[in-house]
Specification:
Layout: H1 2-9, H2 11-33, H3 41-49, H4 55-90, H5 102-115, H6 121-146, H7 151-175, H8 181-190, H9 198-217, H10 219-224
Length: about 260
């Protein structure tokens, strides 16, 4: 009886996930069809089934549209996982990767790499990753200096680090070469899939496959933080029947809230 009631209460959540999945599929198809060289759904089906299509349409599909659509899908999934991890760490559904200045630190690292001489795309990615790590490190130092290990302290420290990073980016833009470096910084900040190729997509898939064992092991936790307050909304059925007593810091009578739980 209790299991039936729990399943009934989760039906709206399941419908929401199905609706989101349908929207993602529609956006994926639209991103392939829409462009300066339009491709119809019939042509896509013909390409996938080996039908007769023009060489130009086939080249545009395999060289430009499909790799970019796949990369956009993987990038969105990666951002979703990053947001989920931050929500679990801070136990706050409003948390995001930029809450402690990671995004601003990554932008600063990429800007430094772009302004530096002889730094290519790989160097820019490494610079962005290093900038994000340094931002996290400085936030941890500020929190440790205040000796107040609370969510509000992390947020305030992130605001400080983000403001400093943005100021440094403005300074780099002022002294950067207006014909090349300045435009490169702006385009990198906005993001672009213009340079995506099939080989790059396959490389990202290889990295994803290498990380899949650990991701699959914690799939439910990464999806909703089911080890904490969000287990009730987990899309994975294996987490639905987990008793509340098995969850750390959460029970039906505890009254704990994701907005008030400590870090």
């Amino acid at each position: 009886m209790q299991e039936g009631t729990m399943l009934q209460s989760r039906k709206p959540v399941i419908r929401s996930y199905r609706l989101v999945g349908a929207c993602i599929a529609a956006a994926f198809i639209a991103s392939i069809c829409i462009g300066n060289f339009p491709i119809t759904v019939k042509e896509i089906i013909a390409i996938l089934t080996g039908g007769e299509v023009s060489t130009m349409t086939r080249n545009v599909f395999f060289t430009l549209r499909l790799p970019r659509a796949c990369m956009g899908l993987m990038a969105g999934a990666g951002l979703g996982v990053a947001g989920s991890v931050y929500q679990m760490i801070f136990r706050n559904p409003l948390a995001s990767p930029d809450i402690i200045g990671v995004s601003s630190g990554a932008n600063l690292g990429a800007a430094i790499a772009i302004v530096s001489v002889g730094i290519g795309i790989g160097g820019i990615a490494i610079g962005a990753f290093a900038g994000g790590l340094l931002a996290v490190g400085f936030v941890m130092l500020l929190v440790r200096a205040t000796r107040a290990n609370t969510t509000a302290t992390y947020v305030l420290a992130g605001i400080v680090i983000s403001a400093v990073a943005k100021s440094a980016i403005m300074l780099l833009k002022y002294y950067a070469d207006s014909e090349s470096n300045l435009a490169a910084i702006e385009y990198w900040t906005m993001g672009s899939f213009a340079g995506v190729t099939a080989s790059k997509v396959l490389s990202c898939c290889a990295v994803r496959s290498a990380c899949s064992p650990s991701m699959r092991k914690n799939a439910g936790c990464w999806a909703c933080g089911c080890t904490g307050y969000g287990w009730r909304y987990c899309p994975f059925p294996r987490c639905w029947w987990r008793p509340s007593s098995a969850l750390p810091g959460l029970s039906p009578s505890s009254g704990s809230s994701p907005l008030t739980s400590p870090v």
